[in-house]
UniProtKB/TrEMBL annotation:
Homotetramer. It comes from the Eukaryota. This is Alpha-L-fucosidase. Belongs to the glycosyl hydrolase 29 family. It catalyses: an alpha-L-fucoside + H2O = L-fucose + an alcohol; a neolactoside IV(2)-alpha-Fuc-nLc4Cer(d18:0) + H2O = a neolactoside nLc4Cer(d18:0) + L-fucose; a neolactoside IV(2)-alpha-Fuc-nLc4Cer(d18:1(4E)) + H2O = a neolactoside nLc4Cer(d18:1(4E)) + L-fucose. GO terms for molecular function: alpha-L-fucosidase activity. InterPro entries: FUC_metazoa-typ, Fucosidase_C, GH, Glyco_hydro_29, Glyco_hydro_29_CS, Glyco_hydro_29_N, Glyco_hydro_b. Keywords: Glycoprotein, Glycosidase, Hydrolase, Lipid metabolism, Lysosome, Signal. Residues 30-361 form the Glycoside hydrolase family 29 N-terminal domain. GO terms for biological process: fucose metabolic process; glycoside catabolic process; lipid metabolic process. Residues 1-22 form the signal peptide. Alpha-L-fucosidase is responsible for hydrolyzing the alpha-1,6-linked fucose joined to the reducing-end N-acetylglucosamine of the carbohydrate moieties of glycoproteins.
Amino acid sequence: MAAGRLWLLLPLLLLLCDGALPRGPSVGPRYSPDWASLDARPLPGWFDAAKFGVFVHWGVFSVPAWGSEWFWWHWKAEHRSDYERFVSTRFPPGTTYADFAPRFSAADFQPEQWAQLFQEAGARYVVFTTKHHEGFTNWGSKASWNWNSVDTGPHRDLVGELGDALRKRNISYGLYHSLFEWFHPLYLLDKKNGFKSQFFVAGKTLPELYELVLRYKPDIIWSDGDWEAPDTYWNSTSFLAWLYNDSPVKDTVVVNDRWGFNCSCHHGGYYNCQDKFKPGTLPDHKWEMCTSIDVRSWGYRSNMQVYELMSEFTIIKELVHTVSYGGNYLLNVGPTKEGTIAPIFQERLLALGTWLKINGEAIYESKPWRIQKENCSDEIWYTSKGPAVYAIFLVWPKDDVLTLSSPVLSASIQVSMLGFFKPLKWQSSPQQELQVLLPSENRWLLPFQHGWTIKLLGVS
């Protein structure tokens, strides 16, 4: 990549940062470029209501499709012998990582099929990798000359095509973007300078972020690759102030917390904290758990094994845990270099979608109840919505009687089970516990075998 071409963007960037960007109507408060002000912005309500999204990791790392999406780093920075052996036995001598890009064909990528799959999975939003740490952009970025999906590989605007397909189905669109790049010379120069210089930020990171917002108008900016440098190096607060004040998505966009090594779990619209984050109690800030069906990789691996994939039960269990604690659940798949989603990934997504078609009433738009789980059990979890309280139990009791000690009983209690139309009978135990008599004979009529929901009215 020619550094000289990147410097041509600096005058444009200065104009953008000086306020020459398009501005929306000045409605509501304006936010200043500091965390105290930015963190005071209310999170747009659509995100909390959505509850479930699909994450997609796709890039040049999908070509070797081995190890993980960190293939380049393990190969060239850590010089791991297993990665070096893999390349030497699978590719011609002298192969470089750049040689993989033309093989990233996306020949079978059909965004309408992806969008249909994600909709049938019950996803209310999708987060797509626009650029991972390798630096390859899945759109024709002006700041990533010759290292993008339009100039090489697919010769397609992957970001734009998927966005168009999702929005036809009213699925919100999030854009994952890595702030840093492992081997970019300007980033390595800034790093050598102790991040006192900002050549990479001015020539690469910020132009990409502005370009993504202005061109694709995302609902989410899912930032990553922040951990080596502080937010002051990335100019994070200045960018977010523009995003919240003057961008075309200023009233609807949400962002996560990865804007510098001092930000995660402290600053941002909602918190990821860390990959596969699982709090043990109800957090006081909106959060999201991101995880992957393939437990060993976010990108596609041709050598993955069935025992390395999350089961249908595990996915449902994690979703229920997450939502009961007020979080969103973001479940990842990694497509192949051709743009297909492996049938096993599709099966997992569709199984979750089947479950949500019946139990989604207890998930979407729900709020945490005063009790999140029954008697510290991992088998019964609660959510609420208006006057309704939902008890989601993951294991069917052997005696077909579900005992709940958390609800306060009253004479007006109404009990039903999602997926059944008849009310259920209940009784009070000597300890004033609610005992629900489950319809054991009809259990197998439901199109899933894990996780059932009791709806309670008239309890407190």
